[in-house]
């Protein structure tokens, strides 16, 4: 009998069973009344075994038919049918409620309002980069007791209107929408196809490889397998030179966070990824002020420079936070209110790798994942000397998400039931 898995308010699992019955109606024979008593006496000893045999026969025929149809004798097995074999999940409403809370929302809205008004004074982090120096000049007065005057260059006003329009449009779309996964083909595949001279078909890519940056890649020679995929997505400018045997050489899309583009803006033409100027770039926005970098770079970038839809960003944020909250309660037994102090509160964020996987789920028929995971003997990134993880990510929670993605997609919250997750394979 099928088992239904649910979660109590404290996060513990409960189990119940649903009993389904099969009923068969036998036809009634018309028997003359004068022979009825004799007839009933004759069948008393035979009707039960005959009925049992009939019931078993019908059951066997029904089961055989289901196996033949769904097992692939007449048609291939649809990977989406695996949803029918999975137990229905009842999500913990408390976890869903906490996961939907964006701790940094008020601060983000305030920053966006300041930027739309032209107030960059509270975003001093830009002063250390070329973006700030291009737009502002310090005028030092002769008197040391006077404060320096900050003047904007003419270049600032050249980009100001575009910056304000881009930021305003992005902010207006920033809301939760569960079925945004069904729009990813239109949002990302269509513009990339048009750039490549195609018509922008609604048909998804046949196969996609998402290549992470974990040092575990150096232990396997997956290069040829990675390059065999129709679409290869790489993360945050991880170079392939000298690592082709392990990570491959083909790159279809460079997926980055806006901190990477912020560094790119320091270079002429804003080109900084190692895959060549014709490779499209997709990025998610970490800080609203980075739209100035996007505005500048979008003018000179040869290949498409796409920003992820904020509705997609919010979906990813809620999923990761749900898994992080669930893991926190199960492992520590502490209150959900204490989760923020353990994960930097407003700084908590999904990783670039997680959102790249989510992107692949929406635009690909099959998804292969490489370079996700860690090992005590491996570097954090295969191409750098970084060994420690960033505290603002909860990688263990993301690994739990990947596990459900492969084995029980119905256990993933917030995604619309109208979207079916394609087959996923993780290569360790």
Automatic annotation (TrEMBL):
It is a single-pass type II membrane protein. Pfam families: Glyco_transf_29 (PF00777). Its main location: Golgi. GO terms for molecular function: sialyltransferase activity. The keyword Heme does not apply. The keyword RNA-binding does not apply. Keywords: Glycoprotein, Glycosyltransferase, Golgi apparatus, Membrane, Signal-anchor, Transferase, Transmembrane, Transmembrane helix. InterPro entries: Glyco_trans_29, GT29-like_sf. GO terms for cellular component: Golgi membrane. The chain crosses the membrane at residues 53-74. It is found in: Golgi apparatus membrane. Belongs to the glycosyltransferase 29 family. PANTHER family: BETA-1,6-GALACTOSYLTRANSFERASE GALT29A (PTHR46779:SF1). This is Sialyltransferase-like protein. It comes from Acer yangbiense.
């Amino acid at each position: 009998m099928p088992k239904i898995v649910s979660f109590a308010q404290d996060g513990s699992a409960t189990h119940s069973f649903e009993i389904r019955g099969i009923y068969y109606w036998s036809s009634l024979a018309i028997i003359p009344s004068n022979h009825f008593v004799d007839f009933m006496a004759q069948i008393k000893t035979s009707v039960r075994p005959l009925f049992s045999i009939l019931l078993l026969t019908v059951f066997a025929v029904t089961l055989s038919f289901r196996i033949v149809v769904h097992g692939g004798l007449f048609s291939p097995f649809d990977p989406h049918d695996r949803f029918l074999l999975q137990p229905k999940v009842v999500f913990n409403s408390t976890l869903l409620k906490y996961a939907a809370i964006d701790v940094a929302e008020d601060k983000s809205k305030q920053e966006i309002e300041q930027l739309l008004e032209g107030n960059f004074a509270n975003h001093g982090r830009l002063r250390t980069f070329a973006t700030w120096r291009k737009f502002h000049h310090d005028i030092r007065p002769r008197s040391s007791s006077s404060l320096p005057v900050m003047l904007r260059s003419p270049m600032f006003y050249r980009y100001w209107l575009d910056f304000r329009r881009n930021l305003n449009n992005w902010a207006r779309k920033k809301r939760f929408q569960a079925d945004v996964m069904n729009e990813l083909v239109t949002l990302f595949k269509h513009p990339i196809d048009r750039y490549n001279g195609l018509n922008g078909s609604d048909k998804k890519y046949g196969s996609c490889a998402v290549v992470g940056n974990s040092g575990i890649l150096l232990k396997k020679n997956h290069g040829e397998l990675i390059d065999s995929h129709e679409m290869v997505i790489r993360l945050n400018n991880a170079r392939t030179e000298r690592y082709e045997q392990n990570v491959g050489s083909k790159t279809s899309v460079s997926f980055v966070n806006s901190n990477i583009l912020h560094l790119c803006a320091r270079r002429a033409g804003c080109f900084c990824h190692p895959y060549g100027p014709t490779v499209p770039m997709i990025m998610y926005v970490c800080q609203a002020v980075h739209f100035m970098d996007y505005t500048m770079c979008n003018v000179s970038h040869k290949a498409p420079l796409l920003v992820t839809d904020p509705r997609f960003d919010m979906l990813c944020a809620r999923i990761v936070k749900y898994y992080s909250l669930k893991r926190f309660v199960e492992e520590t037994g502490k209150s959900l209110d204490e989760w923020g102090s353990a994960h930097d509160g407003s700084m908590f964020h999904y990783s670039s790798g997680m959102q790249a996987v989510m992107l692949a789920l929406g635009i690909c028929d099959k998804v292969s994942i490489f370079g996700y995971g860690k090992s005590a003997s491996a570097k954090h990134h295969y191409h750098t000397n970084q060994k420690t993880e960033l505290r603002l990510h909860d990688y263990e929670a993301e690994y739990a998400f990947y596990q459900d993605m492969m084995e029980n997609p119905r256990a993933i919250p917030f995604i619309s039931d109208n979207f079916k997750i394609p087959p996923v394979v993780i290569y360790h």
